[in-house]
Amino acid sequence: MAIIGNIIKGVIQIKDSLTPESNPVENQKEVLKSLLDTAKHTAFGKHYNFETLLKQDNIQEAFSNTIPYFDYNKINKVWWHRLHNNEEDITWPGNPDYFALSSGTTGKTSKRIPVTKAMIDAIRNAGIQQVFALNAFDLPADFFEKEIMMLGSSTDLIEKEDHFEGEISGISASNIPFWFRGYYKPGEDISKIDDWDERVRKIAENAKNWDIGALSGIPSWLELMLKKVIAHHNLNNIHEIWPNLQVYTTGGVAFQPYEKSFNALLDHPITIIDTYLASEGFIAFQARPETTSMQLVTDNGIYFEFVPFKPEYILEDGSLTENAPSITLEDVQLDTDYVLIISTVSGAWRYIIGDTIMFTDIERAEIKITGRTKFFLNTVGSQLSVNKMNDAMMHLENTFGMKIPEFTICAKEFEDGFYHCWYLGTENTTQDTTKIAEAIDTFLKDANKNYAVARSKALKGLKVKLTSPDTFANWNARNKKKGGQVKMERVMNEEKFKTWEAFVKS
User: Fold this and answer.
1) Per-residue pLDDT tens for 78-96?
2) What is the pLDDT of residues 319-359, one digit of tens each?
3) Which residues form the GH3 C-terminal domain (predicted)?
């Protein structure tokens, strides 16, 4: 009998039953007041007169009318660069304990995003909220006695004069509470290995010593790790070595493109729980099994705003025009794409995180990530989001019996006009690419009226090439972006696509 597991599950059930219903709209009003009050004496707070904002009848409206939008380049150039010179009280009281390094999928150099102690606490609190939400998934008691494999970036952080630097998953893992360390795998020693291949080799060697009940990590790299473990022990599937594996908390990218290839590594289905942890904070998590949507964490150090995702508001680099209107959680609508704007306890203010989201349940504040502002393909008016690209890949998988965990696309100009050039990562490289191109084209015409209009005018057609999924991992490795939080860019400009094509040919 799982005595400890029953105790933990009982505590979770009691906590869930005693927790009052949350009001996301009111939560957000209180979070904004707290952020402004805490930062009112910082250089940023004085510059934008936070004390005056706090006295307004409608603080949310006054805030949005006073503070401009900031992307990373803008806020770093004007404000955060001063933190690197050891100045204090710039956009948040004191000086951050950590900087999260993030080059994302499009940046050539690492961003250095401040992570304060308040943010570490907020991430931990959101994680605890997610644990208590597991009550809704009705997991067996013995699940709560199993170990959790967290495949993130290295916890061997770079030590600077007065702070540490690393990817957010490594920062978070290095701050796990003491009571959780007995459950945490691969453990502190292996997690500190910086070389991803070496870390995965060690995981494979030690896999038989662990009783893993849950996995956590970005799908593409987690799949590669599971394949290494399976190959190392000559297994048919991962359940032969981890029979009690029941849960996978995914995040970083949409899971749908990886679902078919991921399930092929299992003996039987497991519970998939989506999370939304970015370098800038823990934004949302899946709180119930009836949906794949995630619930915004509205009461924990992040204030959200939403800009309608329309071409006239989006600049070429993914930032926003100055006149782009924002709305609060109170005014959002269902099934509408929004650019996500956040203000946080790390001193990010009206910060363009780069993601687009859509609300699926307003009362519960539940969302789905629909894409990236930089990955919005609008050449010749096609207005194609990553969300629609993912849907097209799932359609191909079902139609042709393929697994397509990776893909990238470029709108490329040829002599007779523009074509969408797709590279699909699949083991089924002998498929008829002409038929695949026709299937993508037909699906997108039906799913996106703007695409259909573009196809009748300047967008001449599609070109499809197939390559091994390993090509995408090797591309990331070549660019020194292997493992951890690394995600493949779904949309490339022509200059980068030229380099990509040369890499594939080589």
Assistant:
1) 999 999 888 999 999 999 9
2) 788 888 999 999 999 988 899 999 999 999 999 998 889 99
3) 391-495
| Residues 371, 354: Cα–Cα separation, whole Å | 9
C-alpha 442/C-alpha 284 separation (Å) is 34
Calculate the alpha carbon distances from 306 to 5, 359, 369 in Å. 40, 11, 13
Tell me the backbone φ, ψ of residue 298, rounded to 5 degrees. -95, -5
State the pLDDT confidence band at 3, using cuts at 50, 70 and 90: very low
Query: Omega into 186 within 30° of 0, i.e. cis?
Result: yes
Q: For 345-405, where are the E strands, in sequence order? A: 351-361, 366-372
Residues sharing a CB contact under 8 Å with residue 446, sequence separation 6 or more, in sequence order: 452
φ, ψ of residue 420 to 5 degrees: the values are -85, 115
3-state DSSP assignment of residue 306: strand
The rounded distance, in Å, linking the Cα atoms of 75 and 69 is 9
- The pLDDT value given to residue 382: 65
Query: Which of 55-59, 161-165, 472-476 has maximum average pLDDT?
Result: 55-59
DSSP secondary structure letters along 78-105? HTGGGGGGT--SSSSSS--SEEEEE-TT
Please spell the DSSP secondary structure of 28-52, one letter per residue.
Answer: HHHHHHHHHHHTTTSHHHHHTTHHH
- Whole-number Å distance between alpha carbons of 92 and 118: 10
The domains of the chain, with CATH numbers, are: 1-374 (3.40.50.12780), 379-505 (3.30.300)
Residue pair 229/204 in contact (Cβ under 8 Å)? The answer is yes
- Rounded CA-CA distance 194/163 in Å is 19
Weakest mean pLDDT among 150-154, 189-193, 295-299, 431-435: 150-154
Residue 39: which of 93, 120, 115 has the closest Cα? 93
State the DSSP string of 446-474: HH-HHHHHHHTTTEEEEEEEEE-HHHHHH
User: Distance between CA 435 and CA 129 in Å, rounded?
Assistant: 47
